[in-house]
Amino acid sequence: MSFHIESVVLGMVGTNCYLLINDGTKETVIFDPGDEGERVAAYLSRENLKPAAILLTHGHFDHIMGVEALCAAFDLPVYIHEEEAGVMEDPALNACGMIGANVKVKADHLVKDGEVLNLAGADIRVLFTPGHTRGGVSYYVEEIKAVFCGDTLFEGSVGRTDLPTGSMSVLIRSIKEKLFTLPDDVQVLPGHGGATTIGWEKKNNPFVC
């Protein structure tokens, strides 16, 4: 079974939405649909892809606002960590006040650290990586050596921790104890900016070296 990843940059703060696509079946897992759900839905339809689920790394508005439109178009299950459900359901915590919005999103499935989700034929391991928010997760797909890490780790940087439920000490611990235990050649796919690798970040990231 083979897979490939496509990405699109969405919305006012340039959020990376990733599509994990099963090459054989065209089943597709959507990671963090940003705030342009209609645009993602149109792309899926245009490319004849078969969306299977929405996986959210965390509950900030710029990662979750597209959920409603996608679910309206395809009736998809939504996954988030059990500690993060309250964040994305609460406008005071999901930072939507920064854009004058009132955003509340509910999940269908609450995941746990270490859980393996089989979606679109792929085994997707949940890594609990809090710090940017209290319930942030990363999703690791060993078969293609890729980790979708949201706003935990960036190329040469880390996620901000000055928003509600954030903690820099917790974030650094998550990176060192969870992400940096992955093989060096694993591709890091962050919520903003360009891709990188675990090995490069271990050697060069000034926040965690």
UniProtKB/TrEMBL annotation:
Residue stretches making up the Metallo-beta-lactamase domain: 14-192
GO molecular function, one term: metal ion binding
Domain of life assignment: Bacteria
One of the Pfam families matching this protein, by short name: Lactamase_B
Entry-linked InterPro entries: MBL_Glyoxalase_II, Metallo-B-lactamas, RibonucZ/Hydroxyglut_hydro
Keyword Repressor recorded: no
Keyword Metal-binding: yes
PANTHER family in the cross-refs: HYDROXYACYLGLUTATHIONE HYDROLASE GLOC
Name of the protein in its database record: Glyoxylase-like metal-dependent hydrolase (Beta-lactamase superfamily II)
